[in-house]
Write a structure and sequence with these properties.
The protein is an alpha+beta fold and 441 residues long. It has eleven helices and ten strands.
Length: 441
């Protein structure tokens, strides 16, 4: 007995009595704009399972019937998948699923060249499918083989998260990719059923028209966004900077209350701008999560609804609520900081106005004193105006009166100084009145 890739499987009487045929379906979801990444993944699978192929390029559909391996690269249908390309490979084996599944998974890891990683993908899905022999209880069969089920490049043990009756058999959800990227970003299902239901079970996951392909993709996009904010780095930055912003805002408000000088504008601005990118990132994730949740609900209402489907929907709803609870206090803190800055700026403006009024009053007083001194010490003769007003012989187009320019007498300069001082005094008094009105408006 072989696992579908040429490897011999050891006998397992107990498992052989329960299953007659097994399959492992792997689906990888990537962004359409990341063409080289998806093409590289498809190329590794194609060259790995068909090493003797002489095709210069990797075809979209390929198969190795001798080893019962089938693969293809396609664009899933639907508005929710417009930005996605999927690579899918199915491995098949006769006999014990509990033995075939680990061998097929190891073979898949080898062909994928696990050292190259999968960090830039939305994620991937593994479906462990097997045909049960007559009279075998699906739940009992799963309990006997769950130890052989797992993600790629992982020894982590998994347990059922949700189960549902499906067309052709029974379906379990065993793992979701809500924590790690790369090889850890795998969703794991198990589908077991009688021989007459095998094709119906495969139609749930295999091929571009698979019934659960779209919700699986939407869920992967949602889990991908969950991992963006549940990572330690973003959460740590969020908590630290939000705490610093709140402390600085409280410090500024305390200074305003005590009417102290030098409010920490620069410090608060620094904290504000540090938290700005984090706020934008969380808002972006929140909007994206709401979009995926809406797409998922739209699909769920029109096609299928069961406990497995509902489990993914519940995870998306919980993530959307979690992001809302993160964004709301963040928005409140930023708004509070913004209002504190506005109050501080208003206080600074009032302080500046107070200073300007005081300075203007002082300048007006000094100018008035100088003008008074100039008047008291005025040595202009009583006839200075007539002395300097000259009458010329009338000429056509020329005014006959003009001031004399005799510079030997200082009376002219004294009058000029007095006029300038009076003008400055009037300007300062006007400014003082305007500032006082502005402060009391």
């Amino acid at each position: 007995m072989t696992d579908g890739t040429g490897n011999d499987l050891p006998a397992d009487p107990a498992s052989t009595e329960e299953t007659g045929r097994a399959a492992l379906i792997a689906t990888f979801y990537g962004r359409r704009r990341d063409g080289p990444l998806i093409q590289g993944l498809q190329e590794r699978l194609y060259r790995g399972f068909l090493p003797e192929s002489r095709e210069p390029s990797t075809p979209a559909w390929w198969e190795n019937r001798a080893d019962q391996v089938f693969g293809h690269c396609f664009r899933p249908s639907g508005r929710a998948a417009l930005d996605t390309v999927a690579v899918q490979v199915a491995l098949n084996a006769d006999g014990s699923a509990a033995k075939a599944w680990p061998f097929m998974r190891d073979t898949l890891e080898t062909k994928l060249e696990i050292n190259k990683g999968l960090e830039d993908l939305w994620g991937y899905t593994l479906v462990y499918q097997a045909v049960l022999k007559a009279g075998v209880d699906p739940d009992k069969a799963l309990r006997g083989s769950v130890a052989s089920i797992g993600r790629l490049v992982s020894n982590e043990s998994i347990q059922p998260l949700a189960a549902a009756e499906a067309l052709g058999g029974r379906l379990w959800l065993l793992g979701i990719p809500d924590l790690g990227d790369g090889w850890a970003a795998g969703t794991v299902y198990c589908a077991l059923g009688p021989p007459e239901g095998e094709e119906a079970l495969l139609d749930l996951f295999y091929g571009p028209a698979a019934k659960l392909l779209t919700p699986d993709l939407i869920a992967h996009k949602g889990y991908y966004q969950m991992r963006q904010y549940r990572g330690e780095d973003l959460e740590r930055k969020y908590e630290e900077r939000l705490k610093e912003l709140r402390q600085t805002t409280a410090e500024l408000l305390h200074i305003l209350k005590e009417d102290k000088e030098d409010p920490p504008f620069n410090k608060l601005s620094q904290k504000y701008y540090q938290l700005g990118p984090v706020d934008s990132k969380f808002k972006e994730l929140h909007v994206g999560m709401l979009r995926q949740l809406k797409n998922y609900d739209r699909w769920r209402e029109g096609v299928m609804d069961n406990d497995v489907v509902d489990f993914h929907g519940g995870q998306l709803e919980a993530a959307a609520d979690e992001l809302e609870l993160i964004v709301q206090p963040l928005e409140d803190s930023l708004n509070k900081a913004d209002k504190a800055v506005s109050l501080a700026q208003a206080q600074e403006t009032k302080n500046l106005e107070r200073i300007l009024v005081a300075v203007t009053a002082v300048l007006a007083t000094v100018t008035g004193v100088l003008a008074t001194v100039e008047i008291i010490t005025w040595h202009i003769p009583h006839d200075w105006g007539l002395s300097y007003l000259v009458w010329d012989n009338p000429q056509e187009g020329v005014w006959p009166f003009h001031w004399s320019t005799d510079k030997e007498d200082e009376s002219w300069l004294a009058a000029l100084r007095l006029g300038v001082l009076c003008l400055i005094f009037v300007i300062y008094i006007s400014l003082w009145l305007v500032f006082r009105w502005y402060r009391r408006r």
